[in-house]
C-alpha cells in the first residue's frame, strides 16, 4: 500500500512541516559531488560543511533534541536550504504499513514548508526515525535528508558510528 498525499501530510504535521506536494526522484536536482563521493564522504573542498563541535550530541545526551534542532536550523539558514517561504524538499518513504519493500520505488521527496512551531526530534515521527540509532539507544533519534528547491544545497542529519548525531550541508560553489 502506497501512502497518499493526505496520509503523508498527516504523518509530517507533528514535526511542524506543512506538506505542499509530492516530487518524484527524477524531478529533484541534487548538488553535484565528484564521482564515488556521497554527502558523508564529501570533503570541505567538495562543499561539505559540518555541525560545529559544540552542536554534536551523543544520542543519549539529555540536550540532544535542542542541539540537533538548533544546529539544523542554523545550517539551513546559513547555507541557503530554505527559500523565502521556508520551503524545501524532504526525502520520504511512501511505502505503507504493509512492510513491502519495493526497492527504491517507494522513495520520493515531499515538498514541505517549515512552520513556526517545528521540531525534528520530539515529534518522533517514523519518517524521521534513524534505524541505526537503535544500536546505541532506545530513544528516538532522527535521521533524514533535505534539499533546497533549487538543488543547490543538500543537508543530512545523521547518526554516526560513534553514537553521535550531527548535520552536514553540501553546497558546492
Structure report:
With 173 residues, this protein is an alpha+beta fold. Helices cover 13% and strands 24% of the residues. The protein is built from 2 helices and 7 strands, in the order αββαβββββ. A 7-stranded antiparallel sheet has the order 1-4-3-5-6-7-2, covered by helices on one side. The mean pLDDT is 91.
List keywords for this structure.
7-stranded antiparallel beta sheet; 2 helices; alpha+beta; 173 residues
Short description, anyone?
The protein has helices spanning about 5-10, 65-80; strands at about 15-25, 50, 85-95, 105-115, 145, 155-160, 165-170.
SS-derived structural category: alpha+beta
SSE order, one letter for each helix or strand: HEEHEEEEE
Helix content bin? 10-25%
Give the biggest sheet. Answer: 7 strands, antiparallel
Principal-axes shape call: globular
* Beta fraction: 15-25%
**Please, what is the average pLDDT?**
91
Rg over alpha carbons: 15 Å
DSSP strand tally: 7
Low-confidence stretches: none
Write the layout of secondary structure elements.
Blueprint: H1 5-12, E1 17-23, E2 48-50, H2 64-78, E3 87-93, E4 107-114, E5 144-147, E6 154-159, E7 165-170
Antiparallel strand pairs: 1-4, 2-7, 3-4, 3-5, 5-6, 6-7
Amino acid at each position: 500500500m502506497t501512502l497518499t498525499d493526505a496520509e503523508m501530510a498527516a504523518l509530517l504535521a507533528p514535526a511542524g512541516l506543512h506538506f505542499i506536494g509530492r516530487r518524484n526522484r527524477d524531478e529533484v536536482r541534487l548538488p553535484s559531488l565528484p564521482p564515488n563521493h556521497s554527502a558523508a564522504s564529501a570533503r570541505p573542498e567538495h562543499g561539505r560543511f559540518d555541525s560545529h563541535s559544540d552542536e554534536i550530541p551523543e544520542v543519549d545526551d539529555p540536550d540532544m533534541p535542542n542541539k540537533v534542532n538548533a544546529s539544523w536550523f542554523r545550517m539551513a539558514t546559513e547555507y541557503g536550504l530554505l527559500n523565502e517561504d521556508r520551503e524545501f524538499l524532504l526525502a520520504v518513504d511512501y511505502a505503507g504499513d504493509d512492510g513491502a519493500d519495493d526497492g527504491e520505488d517507494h522513495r520520493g521527496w515531499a515538498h514541505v514548508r517549515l512552520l513556526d512551531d517545528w521540531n525534528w526530534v520530539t515529534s518522533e515521527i517514523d519518517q524521521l526515525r534513524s534505524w541505526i540509532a537503535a544500536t546505541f539507544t532506545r530513544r528516538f533519534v532522527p535521521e533524514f535528508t533535505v534539499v533546497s528547491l533549487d538543488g543547490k544545497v543538500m543537508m543530512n542529519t545523521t547518526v554516526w558510528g560513534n553514537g553521535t548525531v550531527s548535520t552536514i550541508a553540501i553546497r558546492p560553489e
